[in-house]
Amino acid sequence: DDETAAEVLNTMQPEAAGTLLTESSVETATQLLTQAEATQAAQIVENLDTNRTRDIVTQAVTTGNTSSVATVLNNANKETVGDVLLAVEPETGAQVIREMANQDLTDAAERVETAVKRQINALDPDQKQEYRQKLKETIENPELSVDDLVNLFVEIANLPETPSTVAEIFEIIELSKTVEVVDGMVAQDKEEEVALVFSYLSVESLEEIYSALASATRTAIYPYFDAETLANLPQLGEFTVTSLTISEDTVEPGDAVSVTAVVENIGDDVDSTTVTISIDGVEYESELVTLNAGDSTTLTWSVSKTAEGTYSIEVMGETVSFTVKAPPTPAEFSLSNLQVSPSIVEPGMDITVSFSIENTGEESGSYSIDLKMDGATVETLSGALDGGESESVSTTVSSTEEGTHTVAIDGLDAEFSVEQAPSGFPWIYAVVAIVIIAAAAYIYMQQKKQ
User: CB of 45 within 8 A of CB of 76?
Assistant: First the structure.
């Protein structure tokens, strides 16, 4: 009976079992293979030629054994199954792929991916076209729902080094089917996988598929595109900056400048674009904008710089600039060159005290300085200077007390002495009298001679 025959088949070498199934009728071979243990059946399939396996798979699907044959194919090597999927009729292939995916999505994805690569790598143009048409009809067959395709394509896209396979499928099947699948992938939050697949599309296919998507779908996947894909997207809208302003022309280091740009879509269709603000040619921030035709939006950024200088801001070709400048330093006064003259005086005589004062800050300011003599304030000197300006200041002091006295001002000090005039014969008056007498005598002698 069939059960006994299947048990015998499980004990045979795969090559011998393959020969047996080749010589049996398709009906018998199908019945035996679908009842055999899956691993053994898979090895037997690998020893059958593609056409024989095609006939067995077709018979299995026709007789309601799709699940059993799908299990066998998921266990057979990918190359064998890839050839079989290209050999069976599209409806049969679609049913088998659906069941394979239901049982093990990864195994099914690997085998479908292999079939697609068989088509890609076919050297004979006629065979390549035949494979291409078979894949197209299989993927588009109603037996495979959009959800089936979404799950399958997402899995293929996540296989190592195979996102290009899904891109190849998108370029094979009808545009409407591709749009349905992309919409389904977005509905499952698979925008990243969509963007990855799109990066492998030809420029022509990318433009065609992207343009056919609904605006909501385009908006959803746009942020996930890489720079190269973005550069190849068709321009459905046309964006321009109608106004670019800043809150302050000049600010202090670290202070924020508010940059406001009004972006408008002056094109004929809804579209998305990335608006980038650059400072001195270096990208600072980017923001995704989606606008219907004729609509505009206002974007605002906060920019701050700590280094002094003038900075150029650019947004979509429009430029504006602001300057960072440190505030002027406050007034600060420095004193120098304190002098007293004369340094020795008699009691009560005036002493001239002078010094230099400079405003080393940048802002103008007033000063008030205490002049002290022997530790006591004798006068407060005040005035005003612009930033960087200096002047000389002088005043007088006196003391009736003999001895050495110290005048001090803002950390500077100088000394003078008060001394009594020396007592005794007034030699100074004698000298003056002698000079006067001598002068009179000289004049008298001159007149007498005349």
Answer: yes
